[in-house]
Amino acid sequence: MLDPRGPRFAAAVTTVVLILVLALGSGWLALAQAVVFALSAFTRFGPYGLVYRKLIAPRLAPPAEKEPAEPFRFAQTVGLVFALVAAGGYLLGAPIVGMVGAGFALAAAFLNAAFGLCVGCEVYLAYRRLAGRPLARRVAS
Amino acid sequence: MTGLMVAAGVLVAAAAFGLFRLRRDGRVRASSQPHFDFATLGVRPGRITLLQFSSAFCAPCRATSAVLRRVASTSEGVVHLEIDAESHLDAARALHIWRTPTTLIIDASGKVAGRASGTPTLAQVRASIGALHA
After folding, report:
1. What pTM value is reported for the model?
2. I want to staple A85 with a disulfide (CB 3.0 to 4.6 A). Which of A72, A101, A123, B124 is the partner?
3. Given an 8 Å threshold on Cβ–Cβ distance, is B57 in contact with A71?
4. H or E element in which residue A54 lies
5. Does B3 contact A at CB distance below 8 Å?
6. Which of B6, B21, B57 sits opposite A70 (nearest CB)?
């Protein structure tokens, strides 16, 4: 379970990084952000989350509510894909591809930071509807 | 320079979308009557059912669930039923559900009285139920 302000903070930092990626056209920065996404998606040691937990959370009141980690991890995985597309595009000499990848990632990160909207989570059902067969039930009722 | 302009364009478009969403989320809207047998999802006639479609990767689904449970526990003849959309994709397709949470308000005769995408407030749900009782 996560303090919901942690992912919002991570999304805000990600937004700034992705603006820099676009402004500088930097594939290496996009790659660094991809590593951050991967760490947040697959481990408990996402750097932005660590900063929030160690430096910011102790100064705030405890959260009124906690939320499950799965949606956040799924969103970070979606972010990872876009960041890899961006890094690949810039580093392999296709800056338009780089901009498209970074642009989508920026839109998603900004919507999360500013509005608490999780684009990856919303697209998930649409993706499942188009892609496939029903899965076993994962929502407790 | 182009990169900065792309960034600015993305931020403006995303902000417009976010504001649109903020206004629309949770609002209970009228719905067409789908050809769908709600009994297959466990909806029983004779009471109002708040039928919520959720998915595993969905933080607002939990908030919605809390709101709807609260309404069900404080209103006579109202039940809350949460369905995992992913394990009922046929129902999601038949009912045109593209995102979670989406809540259908089903009246005692089994008709869809309204639907809301996103997390509704207590007041929004109660108002739509009040309209059914009246």
Report:
1. 0.84
2. A101
3. yes
4. none
5. yes
6. B57
| Phi, psi (degrees; rounded to nearest 5) at B35 | -85, 90
Rounded Cα–Cα distance for residues B40 and A11 (Å)? 40
Give tens-digit pLDDT for A53-70. 999 999 999 888 887 788
Cα distances from A47 to residues A28, A39, A121, in angstroms, run 17, 8, 22
The partner residue sitting opposite B87, judged by closest CB among A21, A120, A136, is A136
Asked if the ipTM is above 0.90, the reply is: no
Q: Which residues lie across from B84 on neighbouring strands?
A: B54
∠ CA B13-B14-B20, nearest 5°, is 95
Which whole-number Å values give the CA distances from A134 to A97, A103, A130, B59, B104, in the listed order? 33, 32, 11, 21, 20
User: B1, B11, B58: best mutation site toward chain A, by most A Cβ within 10 Å?
Assistant: B58
Closest residue in chain A to residue B2, using alpha carbons only: A23
